């Protein structure tokens, strides 16, 4: 995408999308991945969602 100056690594000044889930989806059977709940979401480096109590 030729956006190396804006994305691709975690550095000051670059945008970031990040999700914090309530469980490790890499340890779940594939049929249970959809049951994971989002606790916190950063979209473009801005908070987009925060679950109550997180």
How would you explain this protein's 3D organization?
This protein has 54 residues and is mainly beta. The protein has a domain at 18-50. The protein contains no helices and three strands. A hairpin with a 2-residue loop joins strand 2 (38-43) and strand 3 (46-50). The radius of gyration is 14 Å and the shape is flat. The model has no long low-confidence stretch (mean pLDDT 89).
Features:
3-stranded antiparallel beta sheet, 0% helix, 54 residues, mainly beta, 3 strands, single chain, 28% strand, flat
Topology record:
Layout lengths: L17 E4 L16 E6 L2 E5 L4
Antiparallel strand pairs: 1-2, 2-3
Question: How would you state the average pLDDT, rounded?
Answer: 89
Shape by Cα distribution? flat
Give the oligomeric state of the chains in this entry, treating copies of one chain as homo and distinct chains as hetero: single chain
In order across it, which strands form the biggest sheet?
1-2-3
Helix content: under 10%
Poorly predicted runs: none
Number of strands: 3
Going by helix content, strand content and strand pairing, the class is mainly beta
**Number of discrete helical segments:** 0
Radius of gyration (CA) equals 14 Å
What portion of residues belong to β-strands? 25-35%
Largest pleated sheet: 3 strands, antiparallel
Helix-strand pattern: EEE
């Amino acid at each position: 995408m030729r956006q190396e100056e804006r994305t691709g690594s975690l550095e000051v000044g670059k945008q970031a999308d990040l999700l914090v889930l309530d469980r490790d989806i890499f340890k779940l059977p594939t049929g249970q991945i959809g049951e994971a709940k989002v606790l916190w979401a950063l979209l473009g480096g801005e908070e987009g969602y925060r679950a109550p109590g997180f």
